[in-house]
Write a structure and sequence with these properties.
Length: 425
């Protein structure tokens, strides 16, 4: 075991042990303001509180993962790694500028090992937090958003978006891989037309009970420096969404429709076999353009905490469709139950169980089957179950298990187990 692994493992056990002891002290009635702070270094009469009153809000966290393949073909080692997040929000009005102006800066970094490629045939990342920003071959990344909020409820934002931040705000299942579901199928649904980091601008308008959103962005992953230096040089993507906020027997629900279309040109998926053949035998590869994607999402609360209506649990669901050429992702759907625990003594605990199924583009699957690889590609599907226990307001520990069936039909079923420890500073 490397020195970094030992350090991460030791940190996790220290935090866990400290949290358990502190929680026991809190139950026994011991007076310790450290136990009730929203974050380890935050609270009344702290420098963080003073900065917030002056317009500078700082949030920092470290999330450590221990995860590995426990059943199925592949490497059965237990991998240790972690992710650090630093978010700075600047309030323009409090800083002496004007009302409604905000600047958001999100710096993230990953360290250590992960269980993302243990040779079991699973393609969708099993650990969203550790997969990004590594999907762009980076250990760290920075996103910056400038936002202007108007008095009529309209919001305009522009800059580099971290789409995990948007996914983290989703009712019931939101968390960005740090608090609820770990698998990207749930934590950051894959469309094939929206990169994890994007450069663009968004406009949000509220017509209660309907909210409309328009997002215009460069179709390429903004981790690529060319996107920053030569924006929109390879096309533009338009995303339009509508969300209805409603009530069912007095319980809130959110139902949304999203449509995406792009002018980007990509490889014609029918010609994929030509990319595999050696030079001199292969033929020119064609292009396909104007990929599109449509999805429907629903979140419906079935129970709310009578003492705090912001907490509760309910049903969630998603279904998505694409053009399937050049978009490599075909039909996808997932559904499940998630939310806060009903235990009176643990109102902030979170739990969830969900099933997902993603199908590769039929055009891509047929092309791979006809290629020299001769691989039969089926849908990737799985079930994930998690329970997140709040030891302290700034210390949470999650147990997670995933039962997965990868894209290659020849791959065996896999089971991943993991432990996630998050401390908010």
């Amino acid at each position: 075991m490397s020195g970094l692994k030992r350090l991460l493992l030791g940190l996790g056990f220290v935090l866990l042990g400290f949290g358990v002891n502190a929680a026991e002290e809190e139950k026994s009635g011991a007076e310790n303001p450290l136990l009730t702070r929203p974050a380890l270094l935050d609270g009344p009469e702290t420098s963080r509180q003073s900065l917030r009153e002056d317009g500078v809000d700082i949030k920092a966290s470290w999330t450590q993962f221990g995860q590995g393949l426990v059943r199925g073909f592949g490497d059965h080692s237990f991998e240790l790694g972690g992710k650090g997040d630093l978010v700075v929000d600047l309030d323009g009005e409090k800083l002496g500028l004007w009302t409604g102006l905000y600047l958001n800066i999100h710096q993230e970094i990953v360290a250590g090992d992960d269980a993302l490629a243990q040779g079991d045939g699973v393609i969708i990342p099993i650990n969203t937090a550790m997969a990004f920003p590594r999907v762009g071959d980076k250990e760290a990344d920075t996103s910056i958003l400038l936002t202007q909020r108007f008095s009529n409820g309209t919001t305009l934002s522009m800059g580099k978006f971290n789409m995990l931040d948007a996914a983290a705000r989703t009712p019931l299942i939101g968390g960005g891989g740090l608090d609820t579901f770990m698998n990207t199928a749930f934590a950051a649904p894959i469309s094939g037309v929206t990169p994890p980091y994007l450069l663009g601008a968004s406009l949000g308008v509220k017509f209660d009970p309907v909210s409309l959103g328009v997002l215009v962005y460069d179709p390429r992953n903004a981790q690529n420096s060319d996107v920053i230096t030569e924006p929109f040089s390879e096309g533009v993507t338009l995303s339009v969404s509508s969300t209805l906020s409603t009530s069912l027997y007095g319980l809130p629900g959110f139902y949304s429709v999203r449509g995406v279309i792009s002018s980007e040109e990509s490889v014609d998926l029918k010609d994929i076999p030509q990319l595999i053949l050696p030079p001199g035998i292969s033929e020119p590869v064609g292009t396909a353009k104007n990929p599109w994607y449509v999805s429907f999402n629903a979140q419906q609360f079935l129970w709310q905490n009578p003492d705090d209506t912001s907490k509760g649990w309910g049903l969630f669901g998603h279904v998505g469709f694409s053009d399937e050429n050049p978009t490599p992702v075909g039909t996808s759907y997932f559904f499940g139950l998630s939310g806060n625990a009903m235990f009176e003594e643990y109102p902030n605990d979170r739990w969830g169980i969900g099933y997902f199924k993603y199908r590769l583009s039929g055009v891509l699957a047929d092309a791979i089957a006809a290629s020299p690889i001769n691989y039969l590609i089926g849908p990737e599907q799985g079930v994930e179950v998690f329970y997140n226990h709040e030891f302290l307001p700034w210390l949470n520990v999650t147990a997670d298990i995933q039962l997965l069936d990868g894209f290659p039909i020849s791959s065996s079923n896999s089971v991943y187990a993991g432990l996630r420890t998050k401390i908010s500073f």
